[in-house]
Design brief:
single chain, 239 residues, alpha+beta, Cysteine Rich Protein, Collagenase (Catalytic Domain), 2 domains, three-stranded mixed β-sheet, 48% helix, globular, binds zinc ion
Length: 239
């Protein structure tokens, strides 16, 4: 969010005479009052006007995010399967056992995350983490849980990330290193976005302040060294 100069506020329509603000990944401009006082879209962070959606678990969505959001479990399953098929075809990431899929709400996903005891690098227990998806392995049961109401591209990016963890569970038996685990999952999501033609969303992954970004950059270093197929082989042997 960076102050600039001129036009009208995309939220309240007020003339922007002084400072105005933008949200990363969005060209619209907002006044200081809207930025400071209005609730924000859970997904993209824009200030919300009266025209917005409230999901049953309390999350608020802007009209743009709502327009592609996935609410229906049958549609979610179909998009999940399309994503998995894409990862198999463009990165060769086939699973032998496979992984089940469930669409859940925010409190359910939060509880599952608490039980999984896995925290992203740089996070401490108790810190609030915005979880969009989660891979859980419990004995023979392997499941990817996804948050409902995610915009389609966010959904696909998150499925690709979690599917990479499912793949690691099968193909990288020794892998414990969190930087390699999360960096590779982000790398898979990045290439999936490029494969979909979503270059803007892929570029955002390289520009945003995300806790996994240094891990993703480490993957690009390894890719430059080993090549794409070589990186995947490297992961299989890594600890
Ligand atoms: Zn405004
Ligand atoms: Zn939004
Ligand atoms: Zn992850």
């Amino acid at each position: 969010m960076e102050p600039k100069m001129s036009a009208t506020c995309a939220c309240c329509g007020a003339l922007l005479t002084g400072r105005y603000y933008t949200i990363p990944g969005n060209d619209a401009c907002y006044c200081q009052t809207c930025i400071k006082t209005r609730p924000r879209c859970e997904s993209c962070g824009v200030p919300l006007g009266s025209h917005h959606w409230k999901l049953h678990d309390g999350r608020l969505l802007c009209p743009q995010c709502h327009s592609t959001a996935i609410y229906d479990p049958a549609i979610a399953l179909a998009v999940f399967q399309e994503t998995v098929d894409g990862l198999v075809s463009h990165l060769g990431m086939r699973l032998n056992v496979g992984v089940a899929f469930r669409l859940v709400d925010a409190p359910t996903l939060h509880n599952l995350r608490q039980q999984s005891h896995r925290l992203p690098p740089g996070y401490s227990p108790g810190q609030d983490i915005r979880t969009l998806g989660l891979y859980v392995r419990n004995g023979h049961i392997r499941v990817i849980y996804m948050l409902y109401g995610l915009p389609r591209l966010t959904f696909r990016m998150t499925v690709a990330h979690e599917y990479a963890h499912a793949w690691q569970g099968e193909q990288c038996p020794l892998l414990e290193n969190e930087v390699l685990r999360e960096g590779f999952a982000e790398w898979v999501a990045f290439y999936h976005l490029l494969w979909l033609g979503a270059t803007r969303a892929a570029r955002r992954m390289l520009e945003s302040f995300h806790p996994y970004r240094p891990a993703l950059e480490h993957m690009f270093d390894l890719e430059r060294k080993f090549g794409r197929a070589g990186l995947i082989d490297y992961l299989k042997r890594a600890e």
